[in-house]
Amino acid sequence: MATFKLSSGYEMPQVGFGLWKVDNAVCADTVYNAIKAGYRLLDGASDYGNEVEAGEGVARAIKEGIVKREDLFIVSKLWNSFHDGDRVEPIVKRQLKDWGIDYFDLYVIHFPVALEWVDPAVRYPPGWHYDDAGKEIRLSKATIQETWTALESLVGKGLAKSIGVSNFQAQLLYDLLRYAKIRPATLQIEHHPYLVQADLLRLAKNEGITVTAYSSFGPASFEEFKMAHATELQPLFEVPTVKSLATKYNKSAGQILLRWATQRGLAVIPKTATPSRLKENLEVTGWDLEKADLDSITALDRGLRFNQPANYFPTELMWIFG
Ligand SMILES: NC(=O)c1ccc[n+]([C@@H]2O[C@H](COP(=O)([O-])OP(=O)(O)OC[C@H]3O[C@@H](n4cnc5c(N)ncnc54)[C@H](OP(=O)(O)O)[C@@H]3O)[C@@H](O)[C@H]2O)c1
């Protein structure tokens, strides 16, 4: 399996399995089946609300001797309402307990926005809103420096082997790199042919930060939210450029999209609830698209972002990518 050597010194698989929107009822089986199919990287988060079940899938795979803990690369994320420095370690310990493991291979700041702490005993995972009714957004005063310093201490305590960020853009990365004692090993970003993020990729490369693409199939992951700009767009699987490359290379459209990303030097973490796609999504390294074909996919760029709070709920309070 293709791997990247991170700036932390650890190896990270280039292809992993994403856990967002994996239903609790099937999550343990899904994780178990993903490991059985050959996935070694699991991309979870507090916010996905399925870390207990994901851990059950891992435990079963380990119990049956399919893998050992050290064969897996388990990723999780710090939710926005735990950015205050003193809230980080307790929530990481809770998340580790949920998974049934004693360290994360990679732990990342999920979004560069700090929200007021919500007691996990009251609501967990808390989501974007402070209140149960989902109306109030309350910001915390924690800076990214405060949160990053707390993540650095996780490494010292052995709770995370590598640390990174997600949904950060160039300006904030430049700032983080000024004070980071441990540099971010990875940056996880939305990346697909409708959002190709060329400048951000260049910056990450220059700074030795490994980039992981999320939502590699673009609108496919967002149709269920009935977002107008996701449902009205031509699905990437049906775009003629992608379809004709699938025929040319005798691969599925999904594999063309993932190989475009992996050939750009990114890690990918596709999610699927469809067993037949598990294997297909894993086989996206070790064969090449010609440069002109890569460029024809890159040319589909529209600078179109799906994963931002304003697309999930009406808000005048939360404009992370403004
Ligand atoms: N850091 C962040 O803020 C952030 C945000 C979003 C996602 N992520 C991470 O990235 C992972 C992947 O992103 P994502 O879940 O948004 O979406 P994704 O993997 O791009 O797309 C998932 C969708 O594509 C379908 N699909 C999967 N494989 C396919 C194939 N080979 N051909 C056709 N359709 C296929 C799935 O359908 P079926 O399930 O029905 O097969 C599902 O509807 C997440 O699970 C999560 O771990 C991180």
UniProtKB/TrEMBL annotation:
<comment type="pathway">
    <text>Carbohydrate metabolism; D-xylose degradation.</text>
</comment>
<protein>
    <submittedName>
        <fullName>Xylose reductase</fullName>
    </submittedName>
</protein>
<comment type="similarity">
    <text>Belongs to the aldo/keto reductase family.</text>
</comment>
<keyword id="KW-0520">NAD</keyword>
<dbReference type="InterPro" id="IPR036812">
    <property type="entry name" value="NAD(P)_OxRdtase_dom_sf"/>
</dbReference>
<keyword id="KW-0119">Carbohydrate metabolism</keyword>
<feature type="active site" description="Proton donor">
    <location>
        <position position="48"/>
    </location>
</feature>
<dbReference type="GO" id="GO:0032866">
    <property type="term" value="F:D-xylose reductase (NADPH) activity"/>
</dbReference>
<feature type="domain" description="NADP-dependent oxidoreductase">
    <location>
        <begin position="16"/>
        <end position="301"/>
    </location>
</feature>
<keyword id="KW-0521">NADP</keyword>
<dbReference type="InterPro" id="IPR018170">
    <property type="entry name" value="Aldo/ket_reductase_CS"/>
</dbReference>
<keyword id="KW-0859">Xylose metabolism</keyword>
<feature type="site" description="Lowers pKa of active site Tyr">
    <location>
        <position position="77"/>
    </location>
</feature>
<dbReference type="InterPro" id="IPR044487">
    <property type="entry name" value="AKR2D"/>
</dbReference>
<dbReference type="GO" id="GO:0042843">
    <property type="term" value="P:D-xylose catabolic process"/>
</dbReference>
<dbReference type="Pfam" id="PF00248">
    <property type="entry name" value="Aldo_ket_red"/>
</dbReference>
<keyword id="KW-0560">Oxidoreductase</keyword>
<feature type="binding site">
    <location>
        <position position="110"/>
    </location>
    <ligand>
        <name>substrate</name>
    </ligand>
</feature>
<dbReference type="InterPro" id="IPR023210">
    <property type="entry name" value="NADP_OxRdtase_dom"/>
</dbReference>
<dbReference type="InterPro" id="IPR020471">
    <property type="entry name" value="AKR"/>
</dbReference>
